[in-house]
Amino acid sequence: MTTVLKLGGSLVTDKERRETLDDDALSAATDAVADAVGGGAPADLALVHGAGSFGHHYAEKHGVSVTEGTTDAGAALEIHGSMTTLNRFVLARLHDCDVPALPVHPLSAGARDAEATLELPIQTVRTMLGEGFVPVSHGDVIAHAGSGTTIISGDEVVVRFATGLDADRVGLCSTVDGVYDADGAVIDRIDSFADVADALGGSDATDVTGGMAGKVRTLLDLDAPAYVFGADDLPAFLAGGEPGTRID
Ligand SMILES: Nc1ncnc2c1ncn2[C@@H]1O[C@H](COP(=O)(O)OP(=O)(O)OP(=O)(O)O)[C@@H](O)[C@H]1O
Ligand SMILES: C=C(C)CCOP(=O)(O)O
């Protein structure tokens, strides 16, 4: 059983304060991961985290997005550096609770071609899983033919990992209990963007990768079922449950 789980940047950071963790939320999430890994399930778990108040601020500062690039190495390094800092914090928490986590930085591994098609080799992640490690990747900047560097969202990394690993399930743990309909109720299941487009907004905070609308669009491309849920449901998801909104 292979699972890809994203810890949302909105969840593990304080999106209102630049480069600030949400300590309690991060600890609760890493504890839940440690309990699941210690309990032997899921067998293979690849983690990804978003940017929250780390990457998005610098991406906006430098005018960089998934489509707008920069050829300024200093700008790219500032965005990347904020993400590796956050990655270090996440890894440290996981190591504190004995999860054998190792980093995977998209900037050093992949690229986009001139048509913006993403190439992100999966062998590193597959071998780490085979050796019993828990790979922890993240949203990042990535080299992009003809554009310098652009942003890769954690959600894109999730989709690449899930496809490359032929994952059985995907989870996106965020600050919301699921995807809400126009009346604020959690939608049980989504299988077409058009059905929910009116209810979907961006993010509450600085976010260059499209918030919830971008997330749903990206996840609909997956073969594996993806679940969007809140922090309270993370243990249930890791135990094999189907919390929040299922996106097919
Ligand atoms: N219909 C909707 N249902 C649920 N959340 C929605 C909806 N429309 C917009 N949102 C917003 O989507 C946000 C969650 O998306 P966001 O991209 O911020 O999550 P994340 O993955 O945790 O963060 P990051 O992108 O930093 O990793 C919430 O802040 C919520 O306000
Ligand atoms: C802004 C950067 C560097 C990555 C964005 O990733 P996301 O928070 O998963 O959308």
TrEMBL record:
CDD domains: AAK_FomA-like. Its EC number is 2.7.4.26. ATP binds at residues 6-10, 52, 211, 215. GO terms for biological process: terpenoid biosynthetic process. Substrate binds at residues 51, 56, 154. It comes from the Archaea. Residues 1-221 form the Aspartate/glutamate/uridylate kinase domain. InterPro entries: AceGlu_kinase-like_sf, Asp/Glu/Uridylate_kinase, Fosfomycin_R_FomA-type. GO terms for molecular function: ATP binding; isopentenyl phosphate kinase activity; kinase activity. GO terms for cellular component: cytosol. The keyword Glycoprotein does not apply. SUPFAM superfamilies: Carbamate kinase-like. Keywords: ATP-binding, Isoprene biosynthesis, Kinase, Nucleotide-binding, Transferase. The record marks 15 as: Transition state stabilizer. Homodimer. NCBIfam families: IPPK_Arch (NF040647). Catalyzes the phosphorylation of isopentenyl phosphate (IP) to isopentenyl diphosphate (IPP). Functions in an alternate mevalonate (MVA) pathway leading to IPP, a key precursor for the biosynthesis of isoprenoid compounds such as archaeal membrane lipids. This is Isopentenyl phosphate kinase. It comes from Haloplanus rallus.
